[in-house]
Specification:
The chain is mostly helical. The chain has one domain: Arc Repressor Mutant, subunit A (Orthogonal Bundle), CATH 1.10.10. It has helices at about 40-50, 50-65, 70-80, 90-110, 130-145, and strands at about 65-70, 115, 120-125. Helix 3 (about 70-80) crosses helix 4 (about 90-110).
Length: about 150
């Protein structure tokens, strides 16, 4: 694996324990609203095509609460294999940078999450649950692939 390519595994990928999203509630009262944000089909699939974004959305939906970015970093690090050329500390730093500078800001722009960059907190929005059926489908497909 090259230095420029992050691991491709993630929610819906192979090689790690799959979370159970079946108990995630869709109508929670604590979700913040961003009425100006819309999620087009293209935006949604673009967001879900990235493993880091799937990690953020999956963890956020499982947690059901605002999540500090350090928890997201630990979740990703715990569920992916670092490239052979990276030490654990280098990999953790790379994941942190990718989440803080790319994944969370892009998900915020699309309205799928609310990212408080100053306090490094990620929150659900009313649009977050739009990704839920697609994440469930990806996880089910991964389970079937792992069983085959």
């Amino acid at each position: 694996m090259s230095h420029d390519q992050p691991p491709s595994e993630g929610p819906g990928g192979n090689g790690w324990p799959l979370p159970d999203l079946t108990d995630v509630e869709v109508g929670r009262d604590d979700i913040q609203e961003r009425p100006e944000a819309t999620v087009s089909t293209d935006e949604l699939f673009d967001a879900l095509s990235n493993a880091r974004n799937r990690f953020v959305l999956t963890y956020l939906l499982l947690a059901g609460r605002p999540v500090p970015c350090y928890e997201l970093v630990e979740y990703v690090v715990a569920h992916t294999e670092p490239p052979e050329s990276f030490s654990p500390a280098e990999f953790r730093g790379r994941v942190s940078t990718e989440l803080l500078q790319t994944a969370c800001p892009r998900l915020d722009e699309s309205g799928l999450v609310a990212f408080d960059e100053k306090n490094q907190i990620v929150r659900e929005t009313k649009k977050t649950v739009v990704a839920l059926p697609h994440l469930r489908l990806a996880l089910q497909r991964a389970e079937l692939t792992d069983e085959a």
